[in-house]
Structures are given as structure tokens and as C-alpha cells.
Write the C-alpha cells for this entry.
Amino acid sequence: MIRYKFTYLVLAATLMFAGALRLNAQTIGYAEALGELAASCGKDIAKFCGRTNLGGGAVAECLERNEANVAPGCKSAASSTAALLKRRAAARAAVTRVCELDRLKFCGGIQPGDAQILGCMYKTKNALSFACRQALADSGYEASLDPGPLGSQVHLTSGDILSSLAGVENTSPGLDVARMRQIAAQAAHDPSRNDPYHREPLFAQLNSLAQLTIAIEFDFNSARISPRSYRSIGLMADALYHPALYGYCFLIVGNTDAVGGREYNLKLSERRAEAIRQALINPFAIAQLRVDTLGLGEEQLLNRSNPKAAENRRVQLINVGQLPGNPECPVVRQVDIK
């Protein structure tokens, strides 16, 4: 699945463990890896790939095309990142085969492909075979959710992230995202909502759902994700792969401030949310059916007393439940994911 010598998201040149086979060491998270890559390749990306966005492998292709001209540090980081991504993808593909005997022994009532398997495996982790533990660790499911500072945002710890995203019931809140998009489009043309200081939130219930809110930097008037926010995108990928969240689906909600036209801001927020979704899908291989998008423009201001404030420009990663019937997000009993 990973085709490029250069891939732009994840670790630069270190082993996943402190020692090659030490299973007790934490794997390095995508957030840390993205930060390393942005630091090593930021100038080259700006110089050669200034119009290229993060998702779909476009940055990787751009760096590969310009291999002869990029800095040695960037070249090394991109090459090491590609190797690590391939290792993780191969490990995830092999987990079912490598861990089959362990599944039958410890999780016999759970069928392959069910998201409950991951929770069950981690409950009995110390009893698993060495090969199975190695495959799970190589897959990145143990990656740290402690990414360090994300721009100017307050430092988030692993506990903060899990408590904010995992606090949901085992049923979907029943969000009709397609209908919500229609309502948002209508609201952007509603003259009764022209005054941002007195504009009520369009979907107040979203704020009560389990979520992680992150400030993502984009180029001005663009959906291109700034390398300064690569670490934040990596944090989202780490969270979606965590055993406690693996059985859930998520909604990426884009929000803007009140600078500019409301209809323009709505469309811009939609494009930005989709840019994040595409970055999660490739190269992180987050299943497409696990992530949906919603752009709200300036219709859901966080700070109505200052509609132009920076905190209004944000992305919400919202846990929308376990969506029965979605093969990429099967229903998982709460007891199995704690």
C-alpha cells in the first residue's frame, strides 16, 4: 500500500523500541514522527512542494521527484519514514495470521475482523506468544499519545486524550451528517444569523460529545495543511489506532473565524476537514468508513464575544459511536474497550 521511497508522515530514522526486540518499550507515535519530519523537511516542502497537500501521497511524490535537490537530513528522514510505514502496514496485515492461535486460546468467542479482538488481546497481553506481542507492537497500537506541545495549544497528555475521546456510550448518537451539511448550507444564507455576536451555535449537541479539539494551521485561504500542524494530524492517527478507540467512528468538524463571507467560510471549512480526512486515510491507512467530515464555517463560533479570535479556527475530532452495520466500526461492548 505504501508505494513511495519518500513518505511524509511518521518517524525519522529510529527503531520502534529502545532495543530491536524489547516489547516493553513504547513505540514512537505518529505525532512525534510528523514533528520530526516537519523539522527535517519543512524548508524543502516549502521550496519544492508549496502547493502540495498532505494526503494522498502528494508530498511523498513531490519529495521523490526532487530527491536530488532536497537536503540530506530531509532525504534521510523521508527514507526512514517510508521504511517504518511499510513495517507497520505489514505488521497490521500479519496480525490475524500471527495471532490466530492466541485468539483461539484467549479470545475464542471473538471472530477475526471484529474490533473487540484488539481489546481482548491487550487484556491478556502478558500471556500472548512472543510473535503475537511483537506483531501487535510493530503495528503501532502501543504508540504514545503524549505528543508534546501542539503549536500554541496546551500540552495534551495521553490521559487527557483518552478521557476526552473514549467517554461515550456503546451506541451511536444518531448523527445524520448529510442532513447536518444541508442545515449548515442553509444557515450560511440565513439573514437572521448575520450578526456573529448573537449567532447561536448551529449544533449545540456536538459540544457535549466525546471529542478532541485541535488548532490546525492551513495556508491562508487554502485547505493546504501547514507542516507546522503535521504533528497534530499524527496525533489524530495515533488516537484512532489506540486499542481503547479502535472500535469507534469519528467525525472531523472544521470551523473558521468570522473573517470573510459566511458561504465562503463554510466551503473552506468543508475543504479543510476533507484534507485532514485524506491525510488520515493515506498513508496511515485509517479505514475510510471510520472518518466522515462536516464543515461548519463560522456557524459554530467558540468565542462569540470575539468572532475573529484565533480559537474559533479549530478542528474537532468527535467520537460518533460504534455505528451498527458499519464493517469498519463494529459495535464493541464497553467492557471490552476499557
In short: DSSP finds eleven helices and four strands in the chain. Confidence is low (pLDDT under 50) at residues 1-26, 334-338.
